Amino acid sequence: MVRCVARVGWHADTYVLPDRAIGPEGSEEILYQPAHDACHYWRVSGTLDEWRAQVGRLCSVNSRLVLAASCGFAGPILKLVGAESGGIHFHGVTSTGKTTALVVGGSVCGGGGNAGFAQTWRTTINGLEATAEAHNDGTLILDELAQVDSRDAAEKAYLLANGQGKARMTRTIAARRKLLWTLLIVSSGELTLAEHASSAGKQVKGGVEVRLINIEADAGRGFGLFENLHGVESAEQFVHLLKQAAQHCYGAPIRAFLECLVKDRTAAERKVRALRAAFLHENVPSGATGEVKRVADRLALIAAAGELATEWGITGWSVGEAAEAAQRCFLDWLKRRGTTGASDVEAGFRQVRAFIVANGSSRFQATGNAAHTTEGNDDVPVVRERVGFRRWNSRNEEIEYLIFPDAFKEQVCKGQSSRAVLQELDKRGFLVRDGQNMTIKARLPEVGSARVYCIRGAILGGDDAGPA
Ligand SMILES: Nc1ncnc2c1ncn2[C@@H]1O[C@H](COP(=O)(O)OP(=O)(O)O)[C@@H](O)[C@H]1O
Ligand SMILES: [Mg+2]
Protein backbone atom coordinates (compact mmCIF):
# COMPACT_ATOMS: atom_id res chain seq x y z
CA MET A 1 0.00 0.00 0.00
CA VAL A 2 1.18 3.51 -0.75
CA ARG A 3 1.01 6.11 1.99
CA CYS A 4 0.40 9.73 1.01
CA VAL A 5 1.95 12.58 2.93
CA ALA A 6 1.50 16.34 2.63
CA ARG A 7 4.96 17.30 3.81
CA VAL A 8 8.42 16.65 2.43
CA GLY A 9 11.19 15.55 4.76
CA TRP A 10 11.46 12.72 7.24
CA HIS A 11 8.62 10.24 7.68
CA ALA A 12 10.02 7.59 10.01
CA ASP A 13 13.18 6.34 8.28
CA THR A 14 12.18 7.59 4.85
CA TYR A 15 13.03 11.01 3.45
CA VAL A 16 10.37 12.29 1.10
CA LEU A 17 11.24 14.58 -1.80
CA PRO A 18 8.54 15.95 -4.10
CA ASP A 19 9.36 13.50 -6.88
CA ARG A 20 10.55 10.50 -4.92
CA ALA A 21 10.95 9.04 -1.47
CA ILE A 22 14.31 7.74 -0.34
CA GLY A 23 14.11 5.08 2.35
CA PRO A 24 16.01 2.04 3.57
CA GLU A 25 15.47 -1.21 1.73
CA GLY A 26 12.03 -2.72 2.25
CA SER A 27 10.48 0.43 3.71
CA GLU A 28 6.95 1.42 2.86
CA GLU A 29 6.21 3.39 -0.27
CA ILE A 30 5.42 7.04 0.36
CA LEU A 31 3.99 9.57 -2.05
CA TYR A 32 4.11 13.33 -1.66
CA GLN A 33 0.76 14.99 -2.11
CA PRO A 34 0.89 18.63 -1.10
CA ALA A 35 -2.34 20.20 0.08
CA HIS A 36 -1.56 23.42 -1.76
CA ASP A 37 0.92 24.83 -4.22
CA ALA A 38 4.26 25.95 -2.95
CA CYS A 39 7.26 27.20 -4.83
CA HIS A 40 10.29 24.94 -4.74
CA TYR A 41 13.09 23.80 -7.03
CA TRP A 42 13.76 20.26 -5.85
CA ARG A 43 14.92 19.29 -9.32
CA VAL A 44 17.84 17.39 -10.82
CA SER A 45 20.07 18.22 -13.75
CA GLY A 46 23.32 16.47 -14.61
CA THR A 47 24.98 13.62 -12.76
CA LEU A 48 26.77 13.53 -9.43
CA ASP A 49 30.12 13.10 -11.18
CA GLU A 50 29.48 16.22 -13.20
CA TRP A 51 28.52 18.21 -10.11
CA ARG A 52 31.63 17.07 -8.25
CA ALA A 53 33.94 17.89 -11.15
CA GLN A 54 32.36 21.19 -12.13
CA VAL A 55 30.87 22.69 -8.97
CA GLY A 56 32.35 20.88 -5.97
CA ARG A 57 35.89 21.28 -7.24
CA LEU A 58 35.61 25.07 -7.56
CA CYS A 59 34.30 25.38 -4.00
CA SER A 60 37.57 23.99 -2.64
CA VAL A 61 39.74 26.44 -0.69
CA ASN A 62 36.88 28.94 -0.63
CA SER A 63 35.50 28.90 2.89
CA ARG A 64 32.19 30.63 2.08
CA LEU A 65 31.49 28.36 -0.90
CA VAL A 66 32.34 25.19 1.02
CA LEU A 67 30.17 26.42 3.88
CA ALA A 68 27.26 27.21 1.55
CA ALA A 69 27.52 23.79 -0.09
CA SER A 70 27.79 22.08 3.32
CA CYS A 71 24.56 23.86 4.27
CA GLY A 72 22.92 22.07 1.36
CA PHE A 73 23.71 18.75 3.05
CA ALA A 74 22.89 19.90 6.58
CA GLY A 75 19.12 20.26 6.23
CA PRO A 76 18.27 16.56 6.62
CA ILE A 77 20.69 16.29 9.56
CA LEU A 78 18.80 18.73 11.80
CA LYS A 79 16.08 16.33 12.85
CA LEU A 80 18.54 13.50 13.27
CA VAL A 81 20.22 15.31 16.13
CA GLY A 82 17.19 17.26 17.37
CA ALA A 83 18.51 20.67 16.29
CA GLU A 84 16.13 23.56 15.80
CA SER A 85 15.78 25.69 12.68
CA GLY A 86 18.46 28.23 11.93
CA GLY A 87 21.37 28.90 9.66
CA ILE A 88 23.58 31.56 8.20
CA HIS A 89 23.25 34.96 6.55
CA PHE A 90 25.93 36.21 4.17
CA HIS A 91 26.07 39.99 4.35
CA GLY A 92 28.17 42.57 2.60
CA VAL A 93 28.21 45.14 -0.15
CA THR A 94 26.80 44.38 -3.55
CA SER A 95 28.79 42.46 -6.18
CA THR A 96 30.91 40.42 -3.81
CA GLY A 97 29.50 37.06 -4.86
CA LYS A 98 26.69 36.49 -2.33
CA THR A 99 24.06 35.38 -4.81
CA THR A 100 26.67 33.23 -6.53
CA ALA A 101 27.41 31.49 -3.23
CA LEU A 102 23.69 30.85 -2.80
CA VAL A 103 23.36 29.42 -6.31
CA VAL A 104 26.37 27.17 -5.66
CA GLY A 105 25.12 26.05 -2.22
CA GLY A 106 21.64 25.46 -3.61
CA SER A 107 22.96 23.29 -6.44
CA VAL A 108 23.50 20.56 -3.83
CA CYS A 109 19.71 20.34 -3.46
CA GLY A 110 18.24 21.47 -6.75
CA GLY A 111 17.92 24.35 -9.16
CA GLY A 112 16.13 25.82 -12.13
CA GLY A 113 14.84 29.02 -10.55
CA ASN A 114 16.17 32.53 -11.15
CA ALA A 115 18.83 31.97 -8.53
CA GLY A 116 18.88 28.21 -8.82
CA PHE A 117 17.37 26.52 -5.78
CA ALA A 118 17.09 29.83 -3.91
CA GLN A 119 13.84 31.53 -3.08
CA THR A 120 13.17 35.19 -2.44
CA TRP A 121 12.51 36.85 0.91
CA ARG A 122 9.72 38.82 -0.72
CA THR A 123 6.54 36.84 -0.25
CA THR A 124 3.40 37.10 1.77
CA ILE A 125 3.34 35.41 5.17
CA ASN A 126 1.08 32.72 3.68
CA GLY A 127 3.47 32.18 0.80
CA LEU A 128 6.46 32.05 3.12
CA GLU A 129 4.78 29.44 5.32
CA ALA A 130 4.01 27.23 2.33
CA THR A 131 7.55 27.65 0.98
CA ALA A 132 9.00 26.82 4.39
CA GLU A 133 7.01 23.62 4.61
CA ALA A 134 8.02 22.66 1.07
CA HIS A 135 11.63 22.68 2.35
CA ASN A 136 10.91 20.92 5.63
CA ASP A 137 13.87 18.94 6.98
CA GLY A 138 15.90 20.49 4.20
CA THR A 139 17.70 23.66 3.29
CA LEU A 140 15.80 26.83 2.48
CA ILE A 141 17.80 29.45 0.65
CA LEU A 142 16.59 33.04 0.58
CA ASP A 143 18.34 35.63 -1.54
CA GLU A 144 18.44 39.38 -0.97
CA LEU A 145 17.02 40.36 2.39
CA ALA A 146 16.52 43.95 1.20
CA GLN A 147 13.57 42.73 -0.88
CA VAL A 148 11.54 42.18 2.25
CA ASP A 149 10.13 45.34 3.79
CA SER A 150 12.28 46.25 6.77
CA ARG A 151 9.14 46.44 8.91
CA ASP A 152 8.38 42.76 8.19
CA ALA A 153 11.92 41.37 8.21
CA ALA A 154 12.14 40.54 11.91
CA GLU A 155 8.71 38.92 11.92
CA LYS A 156 9.46 36.77 8.88
CA ALA A 157 12.80 35.62 10.23
CA TYR A 158 11.15 34.78 13.52
CA LEU A 159 8.42 32.84 11.73
CA LEU A 160 10.98 30.78 9.81
CA ALA A 161 13.09 30.07 12.88
CA ASN A 162 10.03 29.28 14.94
CA GLY A 163 9.13 26.25 12.83
CA GLN A 164 5.38 26.60 12.59
CA GLY A 165 2.80 28.65 10.80
CA LYS A 166 -0.05 30.52 12.35
CA ALA A 167 -3.30 28.70 12.97
CA ARG A 168 -5.90 30.01 10.58
CA MET A 169 -9.48 29.46 9.61
CA THR A 170 -10.33 28.54 6.07
CA ARG A 171 -13.22 30.15 4.23
CA THR A 172 -15.48 27.39 5.46
CA ILE A 173 -14.41 28.20 9.05
CA ALA A 174 -12.78 24.81 9.41
CA ALA A 175 -9.42 25.15 11.09
CA ARG A 176 -6.67 24.73 8.53
CA ARG A 177 -3.83 22.38 9.27
CA LYS A 178 -0.97 24.25 10.88
CA LEU A 179 2.12 24.17 8.69
CA LEU A 180 5.29 22.84 10.28
CA TRP A 181 8.94 22.84 9.31
CA THR A 182 12.50 22.43 10.45
CA LEU A 183 14.89 24.35 8.22
CA LEU A 184 18.52 24.95 7.63
CA ILE A 185 18.36 28.55 6.40
CA VAL A 186 20.86 30.25 4.12
CA SER A 187 20.25 33.90 3.38
CA SER A 188 22.01 36.89 1.89
CA GLY A 189 21.76 40.66 1.95
CA GLU A 190 23.73 43.86 2.05
CA LEU A 191 22.71 44.36 5.66
CA THR A 192 22.38 42.00 8.58
CA LEU A 193 18.87 41.16 9.70
CA ALA A 194 19.21 43.40 12.77
CA GLU A 195 20.46 46.33 10.68
CA HIS A 196 17.67 45.91 8.14
CA ALA A 197 14.97 45.65 10.80
CA SER A 198 16.35 48.57 12.80
CA SER A 199 16.07 50.85 9.78
CA ALA A 200 12.33 50.56 10.41
CA GLY A 201 12.78 50.97 14.16
CA LYS A 202 12.21 47.25 14.76
CA GLN A 203 14.35 45.10 16.95
CA VAL A 204 15.39 41.54 16.42
CA LYS A 205 15.62 39.57 19.60
CA GLY A 206 18.99 38.00 20.30
CA GLY A 207 17.48 34.55 19.92
CA VAL A 208 16.86 35.05 16.20
CA GLU A 209 20.22 36.73 15.58
CA VAL A 210 21.96 33.74 17.10
CA ARG A 211 19.94 31.38 14.94
CA LEU A 212 20.76 33.25 11.74
CA ILE A 213 24.50 33.67 12.03
CA ASN A 214 25.94 36.72 10.28
CA ILE A 215 28.83 35.73 8.05
CA GLU A 216 30.67 38.56 6.39
CA ALA A 217 30.58 37.78 2.66
CA ASP A 218 33.99 39.34 2.07
CA ALA A 219 36.63 36.78 2.94
CA GLY A 220 39.28 39.48 3.18
CA ARG A 221 41.57 38.30 0.39
CA GLY A 222 40.80 41.00 -2.09
CA PHE A 223 38.46 38.77 -4.14
CA GLY A 224 35.22 39.53 -2.32
CA LEU A 225 33.60 36.30 -1.17
CA PHE A 226 36.31 34.17 -2.76
CA GLU A 227 39.74 33.16 -1.56
CA ASN A 228 41.04 31.09 -4.43
CA LEU A 229 40.05 31.58 -8.05
CA HIS A 230 41.46 28.22 -9.19
CA GLY A 231 43.64 29.83 -11.82
CA VAL A 232 40.85 31.85 -13.38
CA GLU A 233 41.97 35.36 -14.32
CA SER A 234 39.44 37.48 -12.46
CA ALA A 235 36.74 37.18 -9.81
CA GLU A 236 34.15 38.18 -12.42
CA GLN A 237 35.19 35.24 -14.60
CA PHE A 238 35.19 32.93 -11.62
CA VAL A 239 31.62 34.04 -10.81
CA HIS A 240 30.65 33.36 -14.40
CA LEU A 241 32.21 29.89 -14.30
CA LEU A 242 30.56 29.00 -10.98
CA LYS A 243 27.14 30.20 -12.02
CA GLN A 244 27.32 28.37 -15.32
CA ALA A 245 28.38 25.13 -13.65
CA ALA A 246 25.78 25.36 -10.89
CA GLN A 247 23.05 26.15 -13.38
CA HIS A 248 23.77 22.95 -15.30
CA CYS A 249 24.59 20.51 -12.53
CA TYR A 250 22.27 20.39 -9.55
CA GLY A 251 20.17 18.19 -7.31
CA ALA A 252 22.16 14.96 -7.62
CA PRO A 253 24.36 15.54 -4.53
CA ILE A 254 21.56 15.65 -1.95
CA ARG A 255 19.98 12.52 -3.41
CA ALA A 256 23.26 10.61 -3.19
CA PHE A 257 23.68 11.96 0.35
CA LEU A 258 20.21 10.81 1.40
CA GLU A 259 20.75 7.37 -0.08
CA CYS A 260 23.84 6.93 2.09
CA LEU A 261 22.08 8.47 5.08
CA VAL A 262 19.01 6.21 5.10
CA LYS A 263 21.16 3.09 4.79
CA ASP A 264 22.43 3.51 8.34
CA ARG A 265 20.96 6.51 10.09
CA THR A 266 22.27 5.51 13.49
CA ALA A 267 25.86 5.30 12.29
CA ALA A 268 25.51 8.67 10.53
CA GLU A 269 24.05 10.22 13.65
CA ARG A 270 26.99 8.92 15.69
CA LYS A 271 29.44 10.39 13.22
CA VAL A 272 27.71 13.76 13.26
CA ARG A 273 27.88 13.84 17.06
CA ALA A 274 31.57 13.00 17.05
CA LEU A 275 32.42 15.58 14.35
CA ARG A 276 30.37 18.20 16.15
CA ALA A 277 32.07 17.57 19.46
CA ALA A 278 35.51 17.75 17.85
CA PHE A 279 34.66 21.07 16.20
CA LEU A 280 33.44 22.57 19.46
CA HIS A 281 36.45 21.30 21.34
CA GLU A 282 38.78 22.86 18.83
CA ASN A 283 37.08 26.18 18.32
CA VAL A 284 35.15 27.42 21.33
CA PRO A 285 37.29 29.65 23.53
CA SER A 286 37.14 28.86 27.23
CA GLY A 287 34.71 31.06 29.12
CA ALA A 288 32.63 31.72 25.99
CA THR A 289 29.01 32.74 26.54
CA GLY A 290 26.04 30.58 25.63
CA GLU A 291 25.58 32.65 22.48
CA VAL A 292 29.10 31.94 21.22
CA LYS A 293 28.62 28.24 21.95
CA ARG A 294 25.33 28.14 20.08
CA VAL A 295 26.83 29.81 17.02
CA ALA A 296 29.77 27.41 17.11
CA ASP A 297 27.39 24.50 17.49
CA ARG A 298 25.37 25.51 14.45
CA LEU A 299 28.52 25.83 12.36
CA ALA A 300 29.73 22.51 13.77
CA LEU A 301 26.58 20.83 12.52
CA ILE A 302 27.01 22.34 9.04
CA ALA A 303 30.66 21.26 9.04
CA ALA A 304 29.68 17.74 10.08
CA ALA A 305 27.22 17.48 7.19
CA GLY A 306 29.93 18.58 4.75
CA GLU A 307 32.40 16.09 6.20
CA LEU A 308 29.87 13.26 5.89
CA ALA A 309 29.29 14.18 2.26
CA THR A 310 33.04 14.12 1.66
CA GLU A 311 33.37 10.74 3.35
CA TRP A 312 30.64 9.37 1.12
CA GLY A 313 32.51 10.54 -1.97
CA ILE A 314 30.05 13.23 -2.92
CA THR A 315 31.98 16.49 -2.68
CA GLY A 316 35.45 15.65 -3.93
CA TRP A 317 36.94 17.80 -1.13
CA SER A 318 39.74 16.57 1.07
CA VAL A 319 38.88 15.27 4.52
CA GLY A 320 38.62 18.13 7.00
CA GLU A 321 37.97 20.80 4.38
CA ALA A 322 34.35 21.41 5.37
CA ALA A 323 35.36 21.70 9.04
CA GLU A 324 38.13 24.13 8.15
CA ALA A 325 35.74 26.28 6.13
CA ALA A 326 33.29 26.43 9.03
CA GLN A 327 36.17 27.23 11.37
CA ARG A 328 37.31 30.11 9.17
CA CYS A 329 33.77 31.53 9.15
CA PHE A 330 33.41 31.05 12.90
CA LEU A 331 36.67 32.86 13.64
CA ASP A 332 35.65 35.70 11.32
CA TRP A 333 32.31 35.90 13.11
CA LEU A 334 34.02 35.98 16.48
CA LYS A 335 36.44 38.67 15.36
CA ARG A 336 33.74 40.89 13.95
CA ARG A 337 31.62 40.51 17.05
CA GLY A 338 34.45 41.91 19.13
CA THR A 339 33.16 41.21 22.58
CA THR A 340 31.87 37.98 24.05
CA GLY A 341 28.79 39.51 25.71
CA ALA A 342 25.35 38.27 24.66
CA SER A 343 23.95 40.28 21.76
CA ASP A 344 20.75 41.43 23.52
CA VAL A 345 22.79 42.80 26.41
CA GLU A 346 25.28 44.33 24.02
CA ALA A 347 22.44 46.01 22.12
CA GLY A 348 20.98 47.27 25.41
CA PHE A 349 24.30 48.70 26.51
CA ARG A 350 24.77 50.49 23.20
CA GLN A 351 21.25 51.83 23.41
CA VAL A 352 21.98 53.49 26.77
CA ARG A 353 25.14 55.03 25.42
CA ALA A 354 23.37 56.19 22.24
CA PHE A 355 20.57 57.69 24.34
CA ILE A 356 23.01 59.73 26.40
CA VAL A 357 24.96 60.81 23.35
CA ALA A 358 21.78 61.99 21.64
CA ASN A 359 20.05 63.50 24.67
CA GLY A 360 22.81 64.34 27.15
CA SER A 361 22.02 68.04 27.23
CA SER A 362 18.45 68.10 25.93
CA ARG A 363 16.78 65.67 28.31
CA PHE A 364 19.08 65.80 31.32
CA GLN A 365 18.76 68.96 33.39
CA ALA A 366 22.09 70.36 34.55
CA THR A 367 22.49 70.58 38.29
CA GLY A 368 25.22 71.62 40.76
CA ASN A 369 28.53 72.33 39.09
CA ALA A 370 27.27 71.09 35.76
CA ALA A 371 24.78 73.98 35.84
CA HIS A 372 27.44 76.53 36.90
CA THR A 373 29.74 75.56 34.09
CA THR A 374 27.05 76.42 31.58
CA GLU A 375 25.89 79.62 33.35
CA GLY A 376 25.78 82.64 31.13
CA ASN A 377 25.99 80.42 28.10
CA ASP A 378 23.16 81.26 25.71
CA ASP A 379 23.46 77.92 23.97
CA VAL A 380 22.15 75.96 26.96
CA PRO A 381 19.31 73.97 25.45
CA VAL A 382 15.89 73.88 26.99
CA VAL A 383 15.26 70.56 28.70
CA ARG A 384 12.13 68.83 27.51
CA GLU A 385 10.76 65.42 28.49
CA ARG A 386 13.31 65.30 31.23
CA VAL A 387 14.55 61.81 32.09
CA GLY A 388 16.94 63.01 34.81
CA PHE A 389 19.83 65.27 35.70
CA ARG A 390 23.50 65.59 34.99
CA ARG A 391 26.06 66.74 37.51
CA TRP A 392 29.78 67.24 37.77
CA ASN A 393 31.58 64.88 40.12
CA SER A 394 34.65 66.95 41.05
CA ARG A 395 36.33 64.09 42.88
CA ASN A 396 36.39 61.84 39.81
CA GLU A 397 36.39 64.79 37.46
CA GLU A 398 33.61 63.50 35.31
CA ILE A 399 29.97 64.04 34.51
CA GLU A 400 27.37 61.74 36.03
CA TYR A 401 23.94 61.11 34.56
CA LEU A 402 21.17 60.60 37.12
CA ILE A 403 18.15 58.87 35.64
CA PHE A 404 14.73 58.33 37.18
CA PRO A 405 14.01 54.58 37.38
CA ASP A 406 10.75 54.82 35.43
CA ALA A 407 12.33 56.84 32.64
CA PHE A 408 15.27 54.46 32.53
CA LYS A 409 13.04 51.46 32.16
CA GLU A 410 10.48 52.88 29.76
CA GLN A 411 12.51 55.25 27.65
CA VAL A 412 16.25 54.68 27.85
CA CYS A 413 15.96 50.87 27.84
CA LYS A 414 12.88 50.72 25.62
CA GLY A 415 12.58 47.25 24.10
CA GLN A 416 15.34 45.84 26.32
CA SER A 417 15.43 44.22 29.70
CA SER A 418 16.38 47.13 31.97
CA ARG A 419 17.56 44.69 34.64
CA ALA A 420 19.97 42.98 32.28
CA VAL A 421 21.19 46.35 31.00
CA LEU A 422 21.81 47.59 34.56
CA GLN A 423 23.77 44.46 35.39
CA GLU A 424 25.87 44.98 32.30
CA LEU A 425 26.49 48.66 33.12
CA ASP A 426 27.52 47.58 36.60
CA LYS A 427 29.76 44.83 35.29
CA ARG A 428 31.55 47.27 33.01
CA GLY A 429 32.00 49.78 35.81
CA PHE A 430 29.69 52.50 34.50
CA LEU A 431 27.05 52.30 37.25
CA VAL A 432 27.63 54.15 40.51
CA ARG A 433 26.02 52.05 43.23
CA ASP A 434 25.02 52.50 46.80
CA GLY A 435 26.06 49.23 48.42
CA GLN A 436 23.58 46.54 47.40
CA ASN A 437 21.33 49.09 45.70
CA MET A 438 21.48 49.66 41.97
CA THR A 439 20.15 53.18 42.65
CA ILE A 440 21.69 55.99 44.70
CA LYS A 441 19.93 58.67 46.73
CA ALA A 442 20.37 62.17 45.34
CA ARG A 443 19.12 65.66 46.27
CA LEU A 444 17.68 67.16 43.14
CA PRO A 445 16.33 70.64 42.39
CA GLU A 446 12.50 70.78 42.27
CA VAL A 447 12.32 67.06 43.03
CA GLY A 448 14.05 66.88 46.41
CA SER A 449 15.47 63.63 47.62
CA ALA A 450 14.99 60.78 45.13
CA ARG A 451 16.49 57.44 44.16
CA VAL A 452 18.02 57.45 40.70
CA TYR A 453 20.36 55.35 38.59
CA CYS A 454 23.72 57.04 38.33
CA ILE A 455 25.69 56.41 35.14
CA ARG A 456 29.27 57.60 34.75
CA GLY A 457 30.09 59.91 31.88
CA ALA A 458 32.93 57.57 31.00
CA ILE A 459 30.32 55.51 29.15
CA LEU A 460 30.58 58.07 26.34
CA GLY A 461 34.17 57.03 25.66
CA GLY A 462 34.47 54.59 22.81
CA ASP A 463 35.95 51.79 24.88
CA ASP A 464 33.37 49.03 25.16
CA ALA A 465 35.31 47.18 27.78
CA GLY A 466 34.72 49.90 30.37
CA PRO A 467 37.07 52.18 32.28
CA ALA A 468 40.35 50.82 33.53
N1 LIG B 1 34.18 38.68 -5.69
C1 LIG B 1 33.87 39.47 -6.73
N2 LIG B 1 34.78 40.30 -7.27
C2 LIG B 1 34.44 41.11 -8.31
N3 LIG B 1 33.23 41.11 -8.88
C3 LIG B 1 32.30 40.30 -8.41
C4 LIG B 1 32.57 39.44 -7.32
N4 LIG B 1 31.46 38.75 -7.03
C5 LIG B 1 30.54 39.16 -7.90
N5 LIG B 1 31.03 40.10 -8.75
C6 LIG B 1 30.30 40.78 -9.82
O1 LIG B 1 28.98 41.05 -9.38
C7 LIG B 1 28.06 40.39 -10.21
C8 LIG B 1 26.94 39.82 -9.35
O2 LIG B 1 27.39 38.78 -8.54
P1 LIG B 1 26.53 38.26 -7.32
O3 LIG B 1 27.04 36.95 -6.88
O4 LIG B 1 25.10 38.32 -7.72
O5 LIG B 1 26.88 39.36 -6.23
P2 LIG B 1 26.06 39.88 -4.96
O6 LIG B 1 24.92 38.98 -4.70
O7 LIG B 1 27.06 39.93 -3.84
O8 LIG B 1 25.62 41.28 -5.32
C9 LIG B 1 28.85 39.33 -10.94
O9 LIG B 1 28.31 39.08 -12.19
C10 LIG B 1 30.21 39.92 -11.04
O10 LIG B 1 30.33 40.71 -12.16
MG1 LIG C 1 22.86 39.29 -4.73
Describe the structure.
With 468 residues, the chain is of the alpha/beta class. It has two domains: 2-337, Rossmann fold, CATH 3.40.50; 343-461, no CATH class. 42% of the residues lie in helices and 16% in strands. It is built from 17 helices and 16 strands. Strand 2 (9-11) and strand 3 (14-16) form a beta hairpin. Helix 2 packs parallel to helix 4. It is elongated. The structure holds adenosine-5'-diphosphate and magnesium ion. Adenosine-5'-diphosphate binds at residues 94-100, 223-226, 235-236, 239.
Shape: elongated
The SS-based structural class is alpha/beta
**What is the rounded distance between the termini?**
73 Å
**Whole-number total of structural domains:** 2
What oligomeric state do these chains adopt?
A: single chain
β-strand number: 16
Structure described in brief:
The protein is an alpha/beta fold and 468 residues long. It has helices spanning 48-59, 63-74, 77-80, 98-106, 125-133, 150-162, 193-198, 206-211, 235-248, 252-263, 265-283, 290-311, 321-337, 343-359, 369-373, 405-412, 418-427, and strands spanning 2-5, 9-11, 14-16, 21-22, 29-32, 86-91, 119-120, 138-143, 183-189, 212-216, 364-366, 388-393, 398-403, 431-432, 440-444, 448-456.
What's the arrangement of secondary structure elements?
Blueprint: E1 2-5, E2 9-11, E3 14-16, E4 21-22, E5 29-32, H1 48-59, H2 63-74, H3 77-80, E6 86-91, H4 98-106, E7 119-120, H5 125-133, E8 138-143, H6 150-162, E9 183-189, H7 193-198, H8 206-211, E10 212-216, H9 235-248, H10 252-263, H11 265-283, H12 290-311, H13 321-337, H14 343-359, E11 364-366, H15 369-373, E12 388-393, E13 398-403, H16 405-412, H17 418-427, E14 431-432, E15 440-444, E16 448-456
Parallel strand pairs: 1-5, 6-9, 6-10, 7-8, 8-9, 11-12
Antiparallel strand pairs: 2-3, 3-4, 12-13, 13-16, 14-16, 15-16
Bound molecules: adenosine-5'-diphosphate (ADP) and magnesium ion.
